[in-house]
Each structure stands twice: as C-alpha cells, then as structure tokens.
Write a structure and sequence with these properties.
By secondary structure, the protein is α+β, with helices and mostly antiparallel strands. It contains 9 helices and 30 strands. A hairpin with a 4-residue loop joins strand 26 (403-412) and strand 27.
Length: 466
Amino acid sequence: MGETPIIRLEDVVFEYDGERVLDGINLSIRDKEFVTFLGPSGCGKTTTLRIIGGFMNAMSGKVYFEGKECSHLPPNKRNINTVFQKYALFPHLNVFDNVAFGLKVKKLPQSEIKARVAKMLELVNLKGFDKRKVNQLSGGQQQRVAIARALVNYPKVLLLDEPLGALDLKLRKEMQLELKKIQQSLDITFIYVTHDQEEALTMSDTVVVMKDGVIQQVGTPQDIYNEPKNAFVADFIGESNIIDAVMVKDFLVRFQGHDFTCVDKGFAPNQPVDVVIRPEDIKLTPAIMGMMTGEVESVVFKGVHYEISVDCDGHHYIVHSTIAQDVGDRVGINIDPGDIHIMNRLFADDKNTVYGTVTDEDTVEFCGFSFTRENLGLEAGTRVLLTIQPSDIEVVSEDIADSKAYLESLVYKGRHNELIVWMAERQWLIHSQLDEQVATDIGIKFDFDKIEIAAVTSEEVGKDEE
C-alpha cells in the first residue's frame, strides 16, 4: 500500500445557479509536493481550491485530509492556510502585527510569536521590515507579507489563489522561483491556482489541467508538455501544431498525404486521430531532403529562437529554430518518430451525426431545428440519421443565427480553427476560419442544403437516439 495522500477529492460536484462548475472531481495530492491547478477562466480551479480550504462545501462528494473526511469542517478546523490574489492585509497594522495576527488570536506566548515572525520574515526576504506600514510596501513586498502570515501558523498545506496576478512580469518571474524555494525549504504541500502555463511549468511537481469543471490531465510538467492527453491540453500548454490524421496501423500515422513512422500503438486500423508536434521538434532542411516541403511565410526573432511559419500545401506549421530563413524560401520539413504524439479525437469520425424525424413529406426536424428538402421521398414519421459536416455549420452574428451555442473549446488545426460547442443539449463540431472567445455564447447557422439524410429503422436508432 502507498502512503495516504494528504488531500483526496472523491467525486466532488459543485453547481452555481444551476450550472455545473465541478463535474465529479477525483484527485489525490501527495504530501510535500507543489501542485498547480491550471486552466482557463471558469474551468473550476479556484472553486476546487476553495472546497479544499473549507470556504465552500461541495454539493456532493467527499474531501479527505490525511485520510480523514473533512468535507464539512470550517477553514479554521483544517491545518490549511490560504494566500489570495488580493492579499487582505490589515492596513492599520505594521508588517510584524500583520504576520503575528493569527498567533495572537491563538494566544501564544509573546516570545514564541516574536521568534516565529522573525523566522518567517527572514524566509520571505523581509528581515528588518517588521516596523513598516503595509501601505509603504511594494506589491511584491505585500505579497511576501501575506505568504509569511499564512506560513507562520505552520500549516500542513498552503493554498495559493493566483497570488502573483497583480505583479508585473519581472517581479512575477522572480516570485515564481522564490515560492518554489520557500516550499522546498519548509517541506510542506503547496496547492497553487493559475491560468499562466509558464508559472505551472516553472514551479510545479504536479500539474492538474482543468477545463469546464473536469480534470483533463494530471502529470509532471514534462508529462503534460511532452505527452498531452488531448488537443485541449496540447493547445493550452505551450504552442503546438495540431493536425488531423489517420492511424494507419501501429507505429504508422498518415497526415497531409504522407505516412510517418511514430512510436504509438493500440489504435484501431485507420482510426482518425489528432497528431501533436511541438514547434521545436520540427527540423527545417533543404527542400530536397524533407519528408514534406513548404514555403516560408514569416520569420520572427523571439530572442532565443526564430519563430517561422511554413505553408505546406495549405497547412500552416509553426517552427522554432535557431537558424533564420528568408520569407519565400522553399524548405523541407522533417520530424522524428518520437516527436509525433498521437491522441484520440473527441469526434472520432470528424462529423456531426444526429437523429431526426420527417414531420411531413418535405420537412425534417432535429434537436429543435427544422428544414425543408424537396422530393425527400420519405413518409411522415420516418426516423432519419442526419450527417452534418463541421464546415457546414457557420459562426455568425446572433441576429442572423439559427441558434446560440456555448463555445467550450477552440483549437487551431493548421487549416482552420476546430470549435467544440454545446447546443441543444449536446456537443457539436465546427470548422471555422474565425477566432472566437472561449467560454462565451456565439451564433451558429446550419447549411441545411448540405445535410445528408438517411432513413433508419427504430431498431437502428436504439439507445443512441437523442
């Protein structure tokens, strides 16, 4: 048996105003590790942190601390402290009294309070600042006071809710290293929330990637970056080239009309998949030596490398290289087998299929929509299977839309953006040239003339019927 995790979440669900914010979260956190919850705004990471801290109670599910359930214990009954983005320091107290506040509430001896506060101020590089008023401190110094105040109680776990968000870039980078150093010197568990991928990769032992209240992947920064579980993770963690592909057989994948050796197996023959290739893993060569060839579209110097965009038969690859190219150059593209990462696709057949009903001789209804088709040749009441290609659903302004849809994710696929939206109580796949804001409502319009219609029997519909 392994050691008991210091924190364990079991089937945690939380809803707000009827909307599910956390959807069955299961997670174990080991003692003395630096864990980061990473994801876009609204993914549920702060809600998860607040449930761990006892500031909110889950609708269902359980929270365990050192093997004992603490789901309904208030924050002051858990050996956990929290640092928020807004530091909530007491402006009328000096640095010493801010840090000592919790110890005074506990009525510890004055000598112990002085010793603890001095130790913490030295740890956060604020030795000699004890008499300063907090409003005389910089943002970075105020943040250090907030950390010292949380740590002076010797918690087993420190929760940090985007504590660097108010700092400028240079100070934020300095504090990333400082926080990791503090965590290692105290040997306690840090649970950190951020939407900043660099912060997560820089500081963490373990990264928990979240989206729409669901954990997408848990792993080391190296695992998350090098072996993303799906296109969302690959796109969210650093830049990626994400390509529609077919897994021909074990260790062989086909995309853009070429077969590539890879190191993945276990997929069905000719299964549609996503391929992820990091920009630094693409090698540019003379055109005659490339597996594929393309034309250089743009070259931007990024300080440590050039970011080069290459148009390869209409698919746009991003390449990071230390060697510059000239715009218009014809270049070769080579990719090593180990740098081709294969992932399952959410829409395995790359199309939308939905059941509908013929309501009269030329009208079909599905999911609250209806359209007419002349010479349909099917009787009223006939069940039909509709196939709708992702390119036949258009993103439009809401005033001309057939419906509003909630945009769950957007991933650039080299030729188009792949949108996954929630509409009519199901997910839909859309290919679009437009960029849209994730986690917002968008207008969509069907090209009804291009919907494929096939009659089916009630037995064929079966349990898959909407």
